[in-house]
Known about the structure:
38% helix; 13 strands; 18 helices; 3 domains; five-stranded mixed β-sheet; binds iron/sulfur cluster; alpha/beta; Nucleotidyltransferase, domain 5; globular; Lambda Exonuclease, Chain A
Amino acid sequence: xxxxxxxxxxxxxxxxxxxxxxxxxxxxxxxxxxxxxxxxxxxxxxxxxxxxxxxxxxxxxxxxxxxxxxxxxxxxxxxxxxxxxxxxxxxxxxxxxxxxxxxxxxxxxxxxxxxxxxxxxxxxxxxxxxxxxxxxxxxxxxxxxxxxxxxxxxxxxxxxxxxxxxxxxxxxxxxxxxxxxxxxxxxxxxxxxxxxxxxxxxxxxxxxxxxxxxxxxxxxxxxxxxxxxxxxxxxxxxxxxxxxxxxxxxxxxxxxxxxxxxxxxxxxxxxxxxxxxxxxxxxxxxxxxxxxxxxxxxxxxxxxxxxxxxxxxxxxxxxxxxxxxxxxxxxxxxxxxxxxxxxxxxxxxxxxxxxxxxxxxxxxxxxxxxxxxxxxxxxxxxxxxxxxxxxxxxxxxxxxxxxxxxxxxxxxxxxxxxxxxxxxxxxxxxxxxxxxxxxxxxxxxxxxxxxxxxxxxxxxxxxxxxxxxxxxxxxxxxxxxxxxxxxxxxxxxxxxxxxxxxxxxxxxx
Length: 509
Ligand code: SF4
């Protein structure tokens, strides 16, 4: 499909890397160069300035997907040579490509024009051409997929490999795992991107030359931070380039971003400088007033909103896990599985007790989660949550746990969401425009935080859950994770108890 590039003055992919005058490029470095010259320079020459772990893994949690994609091609051969030994990998690749008995090559290695690549799947066609498939643990085509494929096709063409079709192999969000193992023929969907490749391919040679010239420079390229720092991928060097917004930045204003843009256009970046006659919504006006006065806002309706509950009060929080590849029968691609709940129960006389559930076996948690939850919540009393998440998960669980459906759905009318109560009736300059429990807690309850815990946030909790149920994780580590997860979820519900208590204090009890 692609013509051999004009700059192809170098012979084959078997040439020695030492012949190259500048640092090697790769697929990911090429994409970094497209995003920002400075990012590419720093990735190659100043890797130590990126946060720890930035360059550790090939995919964002998608490593489990690639072996399943390979299983779709029986007889395919893996170039089982680690990334650092590229010449060796290229030599093995050349032997496999030359062997007509090999229908597919996985992790084939090539080098052309200073760009070193390993291709996920290279599938042999009967006419001597090949199909290139890049495996991605996402469910839709991303903006980076076309240039990613283009640079690979460029290198393959330069190495004399004729590519007939190029595409990305994505996870099919419609797939639901059956009773047996994962059905690799149904788990994936192939998006053929051949038709859109040409303009990207035409730009590769010039881009590669520019990137390699830039890498040879003595100075870090002077680039001003902007939208490219987060798009199409968040850059790992934002701490180096992006000035964090000040404590009174107008970006904190809730609602329409047009208001913020209009203020910035007028050169107004500080909330305290917003002219009094500026048209603002009541919520925006509240944020400006709090910045100017340095005091909290407490709405007249706060007390009534907090008292619209029935005792006992159950403060409830869920944690979920959403593995890319469905792990248990009846589960889908990236579908959240409720794995853990924490429950603080407050009686009218002030007595506070705690209960918790964590499914720590490598089996579907749904039934045990549902059964324990309905048992713990009984039939009366308000269930206080912070956001709509628990409501959504209860509905979803009711669909998949028919034995508990009626009792699960009976919980829904008892839910009281504390988040809109806070949003509507309270503001403090410390919130900086965010009403998340992690931001509200230090403003209202300064003596309680998450700093003493092993796990501090929901993203880490989900990642750790995956490690805990993995049989390959050592037993002592699994036990430590289990304890960390329990304490993290417990803190979330205790935070709700204390936030409500503090709000009651502000509202006059
Ligand atoms: S933070 Fe922005 S300016 Fe800095 S290297 Fe990354 S993309 Fe470039």
